[in-house]
Amino acid sequence: MAPTSTQFATSRTMGIYDPLQQFSMWDDVFGPNLSPITSNHIMIPEVDARLANKTEYSSQGSLGPSADSPPTKNITDKSQRRLAQNREAARKSRLRKKAYVQQLESGRVKLAQLEQELERTRRQVKLQYFLKGGLLQTGNGLLSSNVINPGILSTPLGTFYLCRGSNARCDEKFWVVWVHTGIATFEMGYDLWVSEQRKKDDELRKVLLTHTSEIELRMYVDIGLNHYTDLFRMKADAAKVDVFYLLNGLWRTPVERFFQWIGGFRPSELLYILMPQIELMDTQLMKVRSLRQSCEQAEEALSQGMDKLQQTLAQSISIDIMGPASYNTQMNCAMQRLEDLELFLNQADHLRQQTLEQMSQILTPHQAAKALLALGEYLQRLRVLSSIWSARPRDPRNLIP
């Protein structure tokens, strides 16, 4: 019978798995401290010892990454998505903050308007006079004796602020024009509106020069449209007091009155002015042309209604020489006709408001912002032109002495 060592040699030659061969391979890894295997009696304890050494080595090696291991990714896909979400949330937060600041600013302006309106409602009238040569003359001498200084008048009704008329042509006479407090409030509110409009135009111009998102541009467009809505609301309140004041354009400059149509701008002419300032696509151009045609039809209907009202009013106060006296009846009928003027003014302002809103829906936010800026610049230039015209040099021979 062959010896045992011969059987082990045969098994190694045949390639059968031998744990001794595996442990001998670990000798090179763990170092020369391991003793070589000399007999079969110590095989199992030696295996346990080496397994314990391997476990200890593995536990020590797991305390930190190996210096030779490849670098891991610093940011995973999940982290990138989270960072993108955080950036988007921060951007929306900035937009909300900006909108909140603008609301606070708008509230501050409205609060100032209310405070000034409250101050004006304490007075019953506002006096407007035309002054020449610094002399105040009246039939009864009541007002001239109560003048504190130019622009302020003290009466038994209270202290009133006076304003000078720019178109005065008088001969050292003092006319007192009684103006309702509601009209005085409108004049004050309109001055604030014009001042605020300039600020909004400057801000919109700066926004268009920067790379602003569509959402933020739309927010600025909505703020601009709401500003015009505030003007229409103020006009509606003033029309309840004196509709002729608004229809005649006394609250506007002379050049603005030259282009006036029923107390404001003509919507179709506004579209003619704005269209060359904006690059429109074919579909947008068709919609704008359709809107302009609708505006022209509505304008024609309102103009015909005004003409019809004028004819009816003239007929209602016509004199019947041969008929019975009906003066009071005619005046009452005419007063009822005049009340329709307020309705026409409100309809004209409604058409103007709808035109602005329809244009905003047709255009992109960037185009709508440019259109609002062009409209504000156009109205401002009309006011500037009127100021230049009023300050032009005049021939002294044409002045009334």
UniProtKB/TrEMBL annotation:
The keyword Transcription regulation applies. Residues 97-124, 281-315 form a coiled coil. InterPro entries: bZIP, bZIP_sf, TGA_domain. The keyword Protease does not apply. Residues 55-74 have a biased composition (Polar residues). It comes from the Eukaryota. GO terms for molecular function: DNA-binding transcription factor activity; sequence-specific DNA binding. Residues 76-126 form the BZIP domain. GO terms for cellular component: nucleus. Keywords: Activator, Coiled coil, DNA-binding, Nucleus, Transcription, Transcription regulation. One of its GO terms (biological process) is DNA-templated transcription. It is found in: Nucleus. Residues 183-392 form the DOG1 domain. Residues 55-93 are annotated as: Disordered. Belongs to the bZIP family. PANTHER family: TRANSCRIPTION FACTOR TGA7, TRANSCRIPTION FACTOR TGA9. This is Uncharacterized protein.
